[in-house]
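Re: the 167-residue chain
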Amino acid sequence: MDDFSALWLARAAHVIGVVLWIGGVAFVTSALLPAIRRDFPPAAQLAEFERYERGFGRQARWTTQLVGGSGLFMVWKLDLWFRFATLDAFWMHAMLAIYLLFTLLLFVIEPLFFHRLLRHLAQRDPALPLRLLSRLHWLLLTLSLLTTGFAVARSEEHTSELQSRQV
């Protein structure tokens, strides 16, 4: 596979991964959590959320790693490490920060203690876990969409820079 084909495939995988990952976060945030809060009594809400979240959690874990791996490949292949040395390419820092945040949440925080914490909070106030999850998801979605928007807008400005470096 030539360099162009490998880069095209990495970029396609990156974009598809972001669509699946952040699109899933948007669905959970704007549709699933409100529906659970509306349709189930507080005592049943956390169990319902966890039932649906298991499937999305699997998808989110593999799509975050697809995005991280394809992003790393493109940075390596295009020799874009210099972008991390300046704030001119702040969206690169933001993409890395969002990736690391979600990876930490999905692979460390959630499996090790977050679900136990939510169950503990539900014993005190059954509605509290879904309120907290809703706020957390809105924050994560907002940060993710801002990062995606800036990355798309700013990366186009730097396309000519990359083309001139490769000539």
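The helical segments are 3-39, 42-77, 90-124, 128-157, 159-166.
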